[in-house]
Amino acid sequence: QLLTWDQYRLEHWSALYNSSYQTLSPPAYHVDTDKGFIYSTADEAFVCQKKNHFQVTIHIGVAAEPQYVKTPSGPQLVDHFLIKVFGVKLESPSHQVTIEQSQPDRSKKPFNPVRVALPSGKITKVTLGRLHFSETTSNNMRKKGKPNPDQRYFQMVVGLYAAVAGEETFLITALVSERIIVRASNPGQFETEGDALWQRGAVQDAVVCQGRVGINTDSPDEALVVCGNAKVMGAVMQPSDYRAKQNIQEVDSEQQLKRITQMRIVEFDYKPEFASTMGIDHTHQTGIIAQEVKELLPSAVKEVGDVSCSDGEKIHNFLMVDKEQIFMENVGAVQQLSKLTDNLETRIIELEVWNRRLAKLKSLTGSLRSTGYVHPFICSFIHLCHFSLPVTPTTVPGPWPPDVDFCDLLYCDQVYCCTPPTGGSTDSNITSTESAAAEKSNLTDQILHLSSIVLSPSGTNTTIQSFMIKENQQVIDRKYCLRDECGPGRFAYRVPIILIVKKPKHYLKCVLNWCVSVFSRLLGCQLGEHEWPLHVSRLYHSSYHFRSTVAGQANCSTDHHFAGALFTDYYFHFYRRCTDS
């Protein structure tokens, strides 16, 4: 249990300025009493012996280096900073009590202010030891074993002052302690200085040490230093409450994975002279090298000063590693590996889907080639495209752009579907030899499936990345584009269809034209695949109009002047190539 502190004479604090005369925030200021004070439950106050010295540690931090101090006559250049320690009487704050400091020859002299430098961006630590109160508090004697109702108290003040030319000082910040009882020396009633380090805690079974504890070492530099092995049967808890944190940011797990990958894990043996000094029983271990870690993760490595080995050899600026930081680096690296694994799993699932589709298509192809049966779904261009008069088969060598053709994949009869020859009947109402019911049922079968891959990024980009006929994986690209109608905002494709039809030497009614408009909305901002069934095979000429928009931005009635900004139009004209043109 330590003394508590409060601000002292806040109204007398002077402001600091930087070199540009900008006002700086007050310095961060913290005071601890490391030794010399014992809390008395009976007196409800801290007690110290006049003969025993106490120690004060001050921590000071500034964001920017102060250059000037505010004074009644205006800003003045700071010559140096001072730390002053003195006591005041609780019942009379204006009455100061001198603090003394023991000298090497055991003589006592009044404490002189200590100069201190305040570099910007750093915490300055100042330890003041061997301090004493020059007098005791009044009315210390107990009455009938109980605290004296007229007991008097001191308070201790630790202040930071700025000195200007002429040795005049101005208070910058100061803290005052809670009430203190200072008693005269009495070995029979008071604990010795050595015993004062260990005290009873707030609860009955608690023991408190005011200082650092070293196990197998006489020079601990942390609160607890253990030279040897330590057994912990429970958990080691660390503060992690977000309310105690600021500047919280996520780390780049990809960089963490790179750093962990570059860290070298080695086997090594500690030198015997070093192991004996540090209490290390097992010299052969597996681990990392601090110098290598410092290049990758400097914050995980700390210099702890010089270390002396048992043979007298001294290791200067010995490096130690914070393995907790390396553990957190491993956590980030595992998260990054998990992301990579998830991406690979998604790709594998996509490949498996495509493999199943290809296997199904190969199975269907083999069945059709072996039986000679032509499935109406695959050869979907030929069901109703016949005229009443026979047409002599013709061949157009090397058509361009190339016809949409399934016969490289599946078996098809070589029969054409074109306009009637000269002199033949042009009556478009000639009925089919098939029944109307059969015609109606086959209409739903003769379908071409057009697949599109849509890439809808942020903004109003409504461009469709690619079109493909799924039955034969044929891509409809720019070679089918009409001149001057390949974007932006409008794309028109003229796609020739192969002449062959399903049934040889049989004439059906040929529908000359069919136009359909399709409105497609692009939902979300991600890659997507859309599929539309198009009735093409029974037609001599067919046209389809697709409008691709961002949802909520445009529709089929939107003015055409917004093409390319709010929507993109796609026109597909399918026709039979019956001549050389």
UniProtKB/TrEMBL annotation:
Keywords tagged on the record: DNA-binding, Membrane, Transmembrane, Transmembrane helix
Chain ranges of the NDT80 domain: 1-194
Bilayer topology annotation: Single-pass membrane protein
Location of this chain's protein in the cell: Membrane
One Pfam match: NDT80_PhoG
Any Gene Ontology CC annotation: endoplasmic reticulum membrane
Peptidase S74 domain location: 240-348
Gene Ontology annotations of biological process type: positive regulation of DNA-templated transcription; protein autoprocessing
Family matches, as PANTHER family: MYELIN REGULATORY FACTOR-LIKE PROTEIN, PTHR13029
Official protein name in the record: Myelin regulatory factor like
